[in-house]
Amino acid sequence: MSISRSPAPSPVRAAREQEQGTSVRLSPLAASTDDDLFRPHRRAGVLLAVCLFTLLLSTLLAVVIGSVRIPPLAVGRLLLARPLGLSVADLPDTFATILFEIRLPRVALMAFTGAALAAAGATYQGLFRNPLADPYLVGVASGAGLGATFVIAFGLSATPFGLMAVPLGAFLGGVLTVALVVMMARVGRSTPVTTMLLAGVAVGAFASAITTFWMLRSPEGVSRAFRWLLGGYAGGGWASVWIVLPYLILGLIGVQINARALNVLQLGEEQARQLGIHVDRLKLVLVAAATLMTASAVAFGGLIGFVGLVAPHVLRMIGGPDYRQLIPLSAVGGAAFLIFADLVARTVFAPQELPVGVITALIGAPFFVVLLRRLKRSVF
Amino acid sequence: MATLTITHLSTGYHHREVLHRVSLEVRAGEVVVLVGPNGAGKSTLIRAASGVVPATSGSVRFDGVDLLRLSPIERARQVAVVPQAVNLPEAFTVSEIVLMGRTPYLGWLGRESEADREAALAAMERTCTTELAPRRIGELSGGEQQRVLVARALAQSAPVLLMDEPTAHLDLKHQVVILSLVRDLAHKEGLTVLAALHDLNLAAQFADRAALLVNGELRALGAPADVFTPAHLAPAYGLPVNVIPHPTHGTPLILPDGVERKDISGIRGT
Fold first, then answer.
1. Which of the ends of chain A has fewer CB neighbours closer than 10 A, N or C?
2. Which CATH number do you get for residue A326?
3. Which residues of chain B have a CB within 8 Å of the CB of A271?
């Protein structure tokens, strides 16, 4: 057994390249310098650029297209008018109103919701080391939904601090759900993942049932809560955007600073502990962070499935399993995806709006299946 | 010389004690192999010594420091564990897995430094895994994966190496490769190695000293020639055994006798 670290391709490597043909050339690591040994996911930088570009493009499309079309040039001029002191007197007054009061806050809310769902999904998948985990399977989204419904149905959202109460209610609902799930799944000192996911499904279904029951029992709250539940836009304007932003940012920071530990956790809890990770503390921080993000998404975005499941997987397939890259990639990719889905949802049957969750599933599922078929190897 | 000293260590799961006051010493530069029937507590001893199963009593000291009282990070700087190569996260590359061995040395932001990469690279060279660095761990054979886990443990730069059945799923050649590698590391670099093995013949060939664990108790401890005797092994495993010298090494070779069908139900332990 010989080891070769010379800069020139070793005979073994050359032989492997010949044998495997293009698959090696496709791999991000073609050269064999020491630096390359440790940067196997070089494509992540390119991928982030692509995701950011897609985010920008979907944002532009989403503010341009609608019942009133605002030309891209007009959008640019309106955005720059205030900081540069440009005159926009020749544009219709309605343009500014529609852009700043309706479309931009809606795009921002969709971006934050998509980012939160995708980053939370990636976190849950890593935390439970289960590719099926997402905010819904774990029961957190349903619990957060119940919390938000509680706030909306009781009219708390109409009080002066009303809007703030919605994500808070969602967060408390999410936290209670997690606590309940962990309590139910606990066996002695440990919490087996399978049991926990099963408990999550059960508690989630229970919370959804209560939510539905409640809405049917309180006629005055029905229309508001039902519109929200379908993933409809709650219409809080900029206020709801600013209210959910802190939850998203706190959650993202919480996960990102633990992203390397999350990598190590993929070896299993026991090995992670033997490598010096404080596993119980890590799990607590990650659950709290992911629940914060889920709450921020559910509070005004409603129950939107599939983003949290698909976005991280697609990006993992292309960019590799390293959570230090996967978390920001998921956030940007999820944001772009949901903006686009929302654009489709409100334009295909305009003026009627489809629930955005319908579109995320309609676009996401086939795309996901195609990618799965093309990459027939484990990416997890 | 620093010594790993296990004193009166007891532990168990769910109120069932699995390990009863086991005491054992491993000196630096020495390979001590734990053997015993299934369920004797070999893995439990390794897990307790690495701090993942809490001890109900007793201590595990290295160089005078009680390892069980250290924080996970401090302990990981003293003790590295080589587990069985099963259920590894397939999509990570070999270099990423080996770099995970540097976890106890990283700051709270978790950024690896040049020194960390050098340590990982050195660990890969010592285990002949440099060539595998860019490959996904899931693509490798069991023997290669096991070498990568040894590399990860070496990257951890800990003076104590604990191994839990590191050869369980390997073929003959890779069993010998792994154990030769580890014995070399102990003898030449002064690592303190405690390894649980179920294969008595491999244990006899590679151990400096062997410890026979039965029912959670230490039954014999000493040179392989003194521990691997019919007098110790027959009652421990519940069947008659022959021991002859290895034709080239002279180490004990353990050959079990057959068991009558009527005796099978009487054999304890599974």
1. N
2. 1.10.3470.10
3. 81, 83
Q: Among all residues of chain A, which has the CA nearest to that of B108?
A: A257
Question: Is A275 in Cβ contact with B103 (below 8 Å)?
Answer: yes
Confidence grade of residue A17 (pLDDT, cut at 50, 70, 90): very low
What's the structural domain count of chain A?
1
Domain, as residue range, for A309: 51-74+95-373
Put simply, the answer to whether A264 touches B51 (Cβ < 8 Å) is no
Of the partner residues B14, B73, B131, the one whose CB lies closest to the CB of residue A4: B131
Q: To 10 degrees, what angle do helices A104-127 and A279-301 make?
A: 150
From B14, B91, B103, residue closest to A380, measured CB to CB? B91
**Closest to A274 (Cβ–Cβ): which among B81, B128, B130?**
B81
Cross-chain Cβ contact A271/B134 below 8 Å: no
* Chain-chain contact of A378 with B47 (C-beta, under 8 angstroms): no
B100 vs A166 pLDDT, higher one: B100
Chain B residues touching A38 at Cβ < 8 A: 95, 99, 112, 117, 120
Q: Determine the residue among A24, A35, A274, A326 to mutate to test chain B binding: the one whose Cβ has the most chain B Cβ atoms within 10 Å.
A: A274
Q: Is the residue at A17 inside a domain?
A: no
Quick one: closest CA in A to B125, which residue? Answer: A3
A193 occurs within a structural domain: yes
Measure in Å the smallest separation between the Cα of A1 and chain B Cα atoms.
Answer: 7
Query: Is the CB of A37 less than 8 angstroms away from the CB of B121?
Result: yes
- Assess if residue A15 is contained within a domain: no
Radius of gyration of chain A (CA): 23
Contacting B with CB below 8 Å, chain A residues are 1-5, 10, 12-13, 27, 29, 34, 36-38, 40, 129, 188, 257-261, 263-264, 266-268, 270-271, 273-279, 316, 320-322, 324, 377-380
Q: Is residue A165 part of a domain?
A: yes
The span from the CA of B35 to the CA of A149, in Å, is: 60
pTM of model > 0.90: no
A40 and B134 within 8 Å at the Cβ level: the answer is yes
* Chain A residues with CB-CB distance to B117 below 8 A: 34, 38
Q: pLDDT tens digits, chain B, 270 residues: what are they? A: 689 999 999 998 878 889 999 999 999 999 999 999 998 999 999 999 999 999 999 999 999 999 999 999 999 999 999 998 888 999 999 999 999 999 999 987 778 899 999 999 999 998 989 999 999 999 999 999 999 999 999 999 999 999 999 998 888 988 999 999 999 999 999 999 999 999 999 999 999 999 999 999 999 999 999 999 999 999 999 888 999 999 998 899 999 887 766 666 555 544
State ipTM: 0.91
Q: What's the confidence (pLDDT) of residue B194?
A: 97
